[in-house]
Amino acid sequence: MAEIQFAQGVAEEVIPDVRLTRAKDGSDGTATFYFDKPKALVEEGFEVTGLYLVDEEGMMTSREVNAKFINGAPAGLEARILLKSRDEWDRFMRFMNRYAEEKGLGFTKS
């Protein structure tokens, strides 16, 4: 089980575009997620409290979540998680591999 959530216990159904950056020495990195019209913005009564990456190893969290609006209507969510060490990077990649496998996704290196 690997889920992305914006409120604990509520899985997001929209699959994000994920962009990764990493320092050349591997010491830190950033993962930026973009969700186009996620359930978290469409459903009434839903309160976004952060980004939660949940799997059998536990949970990774971030509070860096921003809504995107077009002509006053909610269009998407952008979330960023900072990976401050090689261990955090490795943990994130294990989560993403599980998530990709469950969702039938692939990885494209640019």
UniProtKB/TrEMBL annotation:
Keyword rRNA-binding in record: no
Localization annotation: Cellular thylakoid membrane; Membrane
Pfam families in alphabetical order: Psb28 (PF03912)
UniProt keyword terms in alphabetical order: Membrane, Photosynthesis, Photosystem II, Thylakoid
Superkingdom classification of source: Bacteria
GO CC terms: photosystem II oxygen evolving complex; plasma membrane-derived thylakoid membrane
Chief location category: membrane
Signal peptide segment: none
Membrane topology reported for the UniProt record: Peripheral membrane protein
InterPro entries, alphabetized: Psb28_c1_sf (IPR038676), PSII_Psb28_class-1 (IPR005610)
GO biological process entries: photosynthesis
PANTHER family in UniProt: PHOTOSYSTEM II REACTION CENTER PSB28 PROTEIN, CHLOROPLASTIC, PTHR34963
Family assignment from sequence similarity: Belongs to the Psb28 family.
Subunit structure as annotated in this protein's UniProt entry: Part of the photosystem II complex.
Record-given protein name: Photosystem II reaction center Psb28 protein
Organism: Adonisia turfae CCMR0081
Name of the encoding gene: psb28
